Structure formats: structure tokens, C-alpha cells
TrEMBL record, chain A:
GO cellular component, one term: plasma membrane
SUPFAM superfamilies: MetI-like (SSF161098)
Membrane topology type: Multi-pass membrane protein
GO annotation, biological process: transmembrane transport
Location of this chain's protein in the cell: Cell membrane
Transmembrane segments: 12-30, 99-119, 131-159, 179-199, 237-263, 283-309
Name of the protein this chain belongs to: Peptide/nickel transport system permease protein
Annotated ranges, domain ABC transmembrane type-1: 95-302
Family: Belongs to the binding-protein-dependent transport system permease family.
Keywords from the named record: Cell membrane, Membrane, Transmembrane, Transmembrane helix, Transport
Keyword GTP-binding: no
Pfam families: BPD_transp_1 (PF00528), BPD_transp_1_N (PF19300)
UniProtKB/TrEMBL annotation, chain B:
Listed GO biological process terms: transmembrane transport
UniProt entry tagged with the keyword Transmembrane: yes
Signal peptide: none
Stored InterPro entries: BP-dependent_transpt_permease, MetI-like, MetI-like_sf, OppC_N
Similarity comment: Belongs to the binding-protein-dependent transport system permease family.
TM stretches of this protein: 37-59, 101-127, 134-156, 162-181, 220-243, 270-291
This protein's record includes keyword Membrane: yes
Keywords assigned: Cell membrane, Membrane, Transmembrane, Transmembrane helix, Transport
Matches recorded under PANTHER family: D,D-DIPEPTIDE TRANSPORT SYSTEM PERMEASE PROTEIN DDPC-RELATED, OLIGOPEPTIDE TRANSPORT SYSTEM PERMEASE PROTEIN APPC
Domain ABC transmembrane type-1 residue range list: 103-288
Protein source organism: Paenibacillus methanolicus
Topology of the protein relative to the lipid bilayer: Multi-pass membrane protein
Protein's recorded name: Peptide/nickel transport system permease protein
Length: 323, 310
């Protein structure tokens, strides 16, 4: 176990290092190079050269890379062009806002999806099962942002029941009730996105377990259906669901760029888009890396949870259990 | 083609030669054509492809040129069946031309990802060793950055242009195919016929292309079909965000971002392009699922879907 944990962690660190290299090279592969990216285009050539020299942009690439990496490890993401703000100050508050939005949607989806999937597994191809698979098809084929726009048209503009966008109404910052009202529409959009996959997943996971010999044994010895499902099947069916939850953790941070921009939610995804149009590359690099860290941690947690919950998992397997 | 070389020995056969068993494609089609969802998807997709191809001839107006005298006509106006947008451009014509772009992106990205993914997966799975390690770590790296963010990042650094978008969607979407092909190859390369082929001196690439790839076609095709839908959704998202298709070209995503601005004036404008995306992607996904059921020999029945059809 310890050996597996160490190897898996080292592997994650390696992937993370590779990501920093890829991000770094991407910025340096841009047309015109890092000078056009980190320096304001309005400067005269002499001043630009001077600034480039000061910022070390004329140094060899590896030197620049390690300097950048060194700053990163101390939590220094650099500064924006505009107003020269520290990038961290800009990014961290939005992370919380994104997590409020995604966390609520995720939690809601789980609370609905897992019981629903289990119910459907006991009544295969019944009405509820077909409804779930209908929703899944629609959910996978519909542009989420379009669903958001339609909800806005109906609930905010036509019927005037809910706020159109943003996180708080003017002058009500910090008011919990107001926040909840603003959450309803975007959370509905995001929950539908999660729901489609989760119901399908918990259903198929449950069906697989219900097919096992020990379930037949349990039935044969005369246990009631309720006991068979909840006592014997459910526990084992939850194992793969836990893995999926771990793998989906990063979505909490990254999943909402579109929904955030439809509903003007002040989260990290919207910030990323704004900064992309303003060519604030240091912010883009910072957000990309933060998300990558979450993805890698999520994968690691999924693998480790899987190994802990299911003792049958062979830890020596290459690539990890969740791969 | 390889059949032509088979020598016909012996004359005057006593019994008629036994028929070749129906191949993968024949049995596949038989199952596929019995699946109502997949067939509906196929018909709908074919319809969209045909009207997109014919757009220059059947579109009633120039999609890019608006008539400033006739902005925001409601649906059902004379000569403008679905009305006009805020610049007086005919919505129906714009929908038709948008379909061209969306389908073009969908199919080219799917083909691109399959080519890249198959190559990387095949090399990884067949040769294994350090090549495999390097490629798979690379896949991990690519997977650790959510696609939408990666696409936005690249399009922002380079240039938001149509061809870039196709290229970037293909370059960032191949990981699933690569994993799939690698997995299949890992199994197949241990087969006896591979050993036999190697024994008679077939080169590595010969084995990969002639023997292994052929056996991996079915899952690759299923995956490619599902990629088409994904690519259309990505295109619409990027265009909606202003990083994809640019004016004066048009796409369903771009129309949606326009419609959101003028939501108060004409709410229906947002409905049409969204419905088009939904219907096309739904059809493609139905086809993909139908293909999966039809081509996967390991699956014994297609019961689920048929029962669903009732």
C-alpha cells in the first residue's frame, strides 16, 4: 500500500511537472514570442527591449523556465499587464465562487442520481428507467449554454421569477437568500449535465452487482428483495461510483466556464474567458495550472479510494486502477 | 482485394462451394437497420447533410447580407419564413449555412482525432516499452487540462480562426481514441495470428496495418461517430464564446451568442440554432450507439435498445 501510494504520488508530480513545461512552451510558441505576450504592445521598441531585459525575457529558455517554476512554488503567479495586479489576488477569490456553484450542482446531482439509478436497476426498462435514459440522451446532445439561455428567457425574462444573471443583486452582496435565488438557474443547468452520467453509471454499476452469484445465493436463502438490494448489493455497487466521484472532482473547479459566462457568474471559468480576450497570459497560465493540480489530485484520490474500498484491487497494476 | 490471389484448384467440383459467412459489415448492417433509433438518426443526419450541401441553392437569401429596412421580422413573414435578426439577415438562410460549418467541423475533427489517436495508440500498444510510457504520460498531461480551457488558451495565444479551431479541436481530442486503440492492441498483439505473421516475416508496420488495425476498426468507428457530436458541441461553445467561427461566416454557436444579446426583442431566435445542434448531435449519438450495438461481437444481444424502442 505504502509503496503504491508513493509510486502513484511520484507519478502525479511528474505529470504536473510536464504540464508546467507544456504550458510554458505553449506561451513561448506564440507568434512573436513571450515579448508580445508579457509586454504591452504600446511601448516603443527601445523601452520594450529594456523591459524584456529587466524581466529576463532574453535569457535562455531553461533559465526562464526554472525561474518561473521557482516563483510558482512560492505561490507567485506573476502580475497582470493592466494595473499590474498580482495574479493570485485575481484568481483565488473566483475559485471560491466557482466552488459554491459547482458544489451545489454536484451535490444535488448526487442526491438525485444515486437513488434514482439504484431504483432503475431494480426495474430495468420500466418507465423511470426510460425517462432517465431519455434525459441522458438529451443531456449529452444539448449545448449546456443553450439550455441556460432558454431558462433565462423563460424564468427571468418572460415570467420574471428568478434573477437573470450574476451572483448577487445590486446592494445585496453577502445575502444568503439572494445568493440562493441566483444559484437556482445555473445550478439547474449544471445538475442536468451531471445527472445524465451519474444515473446511468449508478444503474449499470448496480446491475453488474445484482448479476453476481452471491446475490443469487442471498435470494436463494430467502432474503427479502429489499435486504438483498441494500445489504448485499449496494455496498459493492458503490465502489465504482466512488471512483467516478474522484475523477469528477476537478469539474468542481473547471466545469463551469460556459455556464458561468452565460449567467455572468464571477467564477474562475468566466475569469479565464475574460482574460483570454484581454490576452492576460499570466492569468491564463495560473488558472490552467490550478485546474491541472485539481485534476491530478482528483485522479490520485480516485485511485487511492478505489484501493482502500476494494481490497481486491491489485495495487501493482501499471497505470493505476482508475486509468 | 486479397481474394483475387486465391488459386482455384481442381475442376468439376462435386458440391457447390460453401458460402462465405456474412462478414462483420453485413451482419452489422442487419442489426443496425433493425434499430429504430439508429435508423432515425441516420435519416435525420442525411437530411441535414443534404440541405447543408444544397444551402447555396436552396437558401432564400444571402446569409451575410442583411436588409437594414427589415430588422427583427417575426417568424412567418413573407419571404422570411423564420424572420430576420437585428441586422435584417434571414434566419433560415443563416441556419442553412451554419449547418455547413457545424457539420464540416464535426466530421473533419472526428477524422483528425481518429488519425492522430489511432497512430499514437497503435504505436504505443504495439511497441510498448519506453515509447508507450512517453505517449501515455503525454496523454495524462493532455487529460489534466480540461479541453475547453485548453482550446480557449490555444485560440487566445494564436488566433481565433476557423481552420485553427478545427486543427486545435483535433489536436486536443485524440486521447480517448489513443487509449482505446492502445487497449485493443495490447490484447491483439498476443494473438497467435500475429505470431504467425511475424514468423513468416511480415514487418511491424505490416502487422499493425494489415492485421491489428483491421481488427480494431469497429470500436474506432463507433468512437469516431461519437466524436462528431462532441466536436459539433465544442464548435458551438467556442463560437458562442467568440473564439471560433468569426463574422461574416456563421455557425449555430455564433447565432446563439447573437440571440442571447437580443433575447428581449425576439426570444425565438435562440431556439432555432439550439434545436438544430440538439437534433444533429442526438442523431449522431444514436447512430454511434447503434453502431456499437451492431458491430461489437462480444455483446450477445441488442435487447436493451430494442426493448427501449417499444
Amino acid at each position: 500500500m505504502t509503496e503504491y501510494l508513493i509510486r502513484r504520488t511520484l507519478q502525479s508530480v511528474l505529470v504536473l511537472l510536464l504540464i508546467t513545461i507544456v504550458t510554458f512552451l505553449l506561451i513561448h510558441a506564440a507568434p512573436g514570442g513571450p515579448k508580445t505576450i508579457f509586454l504591452s504592445p504600446n511601448l516603443s521598441p527601445e523601452v520594450m527591449e529594456q523591459q524584456a531585459e529587466n524581466m529576463g525575457l532574453n535569457d535562455p529558455l531553461p533559465v526562464q523556465y526554472f525561474r518561473w517554476l521557482g516563483d510558482l512554488t512560492q505561490g507567485d503567479f506573476g502580475y497582470t499587464f493592466k494595473n499590474n495586479l498580482p495574479v493570485g489576488d485575481l484568481v483565488w477569490p473566483t475559485l471560491g465562487n466557482t466552488m459554491i456553484l459547482m458544489g451545489s450542482a454536484w451535490f444535488l446531482a448526487l442526491v438525485i442520481a444515486i437513488p434514482w439509478g439504484i431504483y432503475n436497476s431494480t426495474r430495468e426498462y420500466g418507465f423511470s428507467d426510460q425517462l432517465a435514459s431519455f434525459i441522458a440522451y438529451i443531456g449529452f446532445a444539448m449545448p449546456t449554454f443553450w439550455f441556460g439561455i432558454i431558462l433565462q428567457e423563460l424564468f427571468a425574462l418572460k415570467w420574471d421569477l428568478l434573477p437573470l444573471s450574476d451572483m448577487y443583486s445590486m446592494g445585496k452582496e453577502g445575502d444568503l437568500g439572494d445568493l440562493v435565488l441566483h444559484l437556482i438557474l445555473p445550478v439547474t443547468v449544471l445538475t442536468l449535465g451531471f445527472l445524465a452520467g451519474y444515473v446511468k453509471y449508478s444503474r449499470s454499476s448496480m446491475l453488474e452487482v445484482l448479476d453476481q452469484d452471491y446475490i443469487r445465493t442471498a435470494r436463494a436463502k430467502g432474503l427479502g428483495e429489499r435486504k438483498v438490494v441494500f445489504r448485499h448489493a449496494l455496498r459493492n455497487a458503490l465502489i465504482p461510483i466512488i471512483t467516478i466521484l474522484g475523477l469528477d472532482l476537478p469539474i468542481l473547479v473547471a466545469g463551469a466556464a460556459l455556464t458561468e459566462s452565460v449567467f455572468n457568474w464571477p467564477g474562475m471559468g468566466r475569469l479565464f474567458l475574460q482574460m483570454a480576450t484581454q490576452r492576460e497570459y499570466s492569468v491564463l497560465m495560473a488558472i490552467t495550472l490550478i485546474i491541472a493540480v485539481f485534476v491530478i489530485i482528483g485522479n490520485l484520490i480516485a485511485d487511492l479510494l478505489y484501493a482502500i474500498v476494494d481490497p481486491r484491487v491489485k495495487l501493482g497494476r501499471k497505470g493505476g486502477a482508475g486509468a | 482485394m486479397s481474394d483475387t490471389a486465391a488459386p482455384v484448384t481442381g475442376t468439376g467440383r462435386a458440391t457447390a462451394p460453401s458460402k462465405r459467412p456474412p462478414g462483420l459489415w453485413a451482419t452489422g448492417w442487419k442489426k443496425f437497420s433493425r434499430n429504430p433509433f439508429a435508423m432515425t438518426g441516420l435519416v435525420v443526419l442525411a437530411f441535414f447533410i443534404v440541405i447543408s450541401l444544397l444551402a447555396p441553392w436552396i437558401a432564400p437569401h444571402d446569409p451575410a447580407r442583411g436588409d437594414m429596412m427589415l430588422p427583427n421580422l417575426p417568424a412567418g413573414s413573407e419571404g422570411y419564413w423564420l424572420g430576420t435578426d437585428e441586422l435584417g439577415r434571414d434566419i433560415l438562410s443563416r441556419l442553412l449555412y451554419s449547418g455547413r460549418i457545424s457539420l464540416l467541423v464535426g466530421f473533419s475533427v472526428a477524422i483528425g482525432t481518429v488519425i492522430i489517436g489511432t497512430f499514437i495508440g497503435a504505436v504505443s500498444g504495439y511497441f510498448g516499452g519506453w515509447i508507450d510510457t512517453i505517449f501515455m504520460r503525454f496523454v495524462d498531461v493532455m487529460n489534466a487540462i480540461p479541453l475547453l480551457f485548453l482550446n480557449i488558451l490555444v485560440l487566445a495565444i494564436f488566433k481565433a480562426e476557423f481552420y485553427y479551431m478545427i486543427l486545435i479541436l483535433a489536436l486536443t481530442g485524440w486521447m480517448g481514441v489513443a487509449r482505446l486503440v492502445r487497449g485493443t492492441f495490447l490484447q491483439l498483439r498476443e494473438m497467435q495470428y500475429v505470431e504467425a505473421a511475424r514468423a513468416i516475416g511480415v514487418s511491424n508496420w505490416g502487422i499493425i496495418i494489415r492485421h491489428l488495425l483491421r481488427n480494431a476498426t469497429a470500436p474506432i468507428i463507433v468512437n469516431a461517430t461519437l466524436m462528431v457530436g462532441g466536436a459539433i458541441l465544442s464548435e458551438s461553445a467556442l463560437s458562442y464564446l467568440g473564439l471560433g467561427v468569426q463574422m461574416p461566416d456563421t455557425s449555430w454557436g455564433l447565432m446563439l451568442s447573437n440571440a442571447q444579446e437580443f433575447m428581449l426583442v425576439d426570444p425565438l431566435q435562440a431556439v432555432y440554432p439550439g434545436m438544430c445542434i440538439l437534433i444533429v448531435v442526438l442523431s449522431v449519438n444514436f447512430i454511434g450507439d447503434g453502431l456499437r450495438d451492431a458491430l461489437d461481437p462480444r455483446k450477445k444481444t441488442v435487447k436493451p435498445r430494442r426493448r427501449l424502442g417499444k
